[in-house]
User: Fold this.
Amino acid sequence: MGTKALGIVLVGVLGCEAAYGQAKPSDPCTVADRSFAAFDRAIPTYRQALALNPDNPFLHLNLGLAFYKSDKVREAAVEFSRTLILDPDNLKALELLAYCHYEMNQIDLAAAEASRVERAQPEDGSAMLLLGTCLLRLGQYKQAIQLLYLATLKADLPQTHLLLGEALLGVKAFKSAMREFTGVLAASPDIEEFQKQLAADPNDFQANYYLGRLKRLNNEPDAAKQFLAKAEQLRAGDPSVGYEYAVFAIQDKDYAKAEGLLSDILNRVPNYTDAHVLLAEVYYKLHRPDDAKRERAIIEALKKEEQEEENAGGKPPESPAPQSPGPQAPGRPAVAKPADR
Assistant:
């Protein structure tokens, strides 16, 4: 997902000698600051200012921010790098450069830069969130969980909880992950938050998935299937999307199709409790009571494990973190509650 979808607002960047009260109203730098709201005009104006003062790090920083706001990420990265050459201790430039490298899919580099910012400013919520997201992408789930949990305390945003849920799934803490996912659904019944995320990044998997699910719950199947098809395209074979299609198959009384979808999900994610619940229902519909009873026994065992986890304080199990499956790999169900069908 793009960093714009993380809900981080880039603010508080000072520019030029105007920040120090040294600029005159006619100076190019001052004109650049006045025109900053219109980024297309700001870019050539900052370039004019840099022609007069090429070694001004604040000008390079603000030009980079104007590029970034204009979706010219590579150009922005060049300017933030030039800022750091002139001002190596500029943490704002380093953080912005990390955002750029994240959007350019240079995750290792973004993580290294975000880590430097987070170490220097451990209370910086945006650096904490970006570093946690990078570690999630790199498959370093345990480290990501700690940072993303702290980020939720800094800013209680739905997107942060979704990221934390994904990290918890990475260590197979399904109960804790479900709590994060369903909490987002409960807090965003009007789907506005997901629509905002989708407007910021049309390729946001979570936004497409949850809009599809919510549209299904609102009895808008055609709209739901459009969002789910996009989610499937973004993350082929994702169990959460397959679960939604299984619900549609049951509604259409196509129980054989539902069985196939759910069996495939459980072959890859055996502890996906909700899928077991739905599969038990399918077996009852297919008049296969023995298979249904087997699923019910699995459900009871999983619920017992979940209760033990809950009694232990909801901590993820101490199992080794798996290798990163890659952005398109299955196995990260954004858990849906069968009772909501």
User: Anything to note?
Assistant: The radius of gyration is 24 Å. The chain has two domains: 3-186, 194-316+331-340.
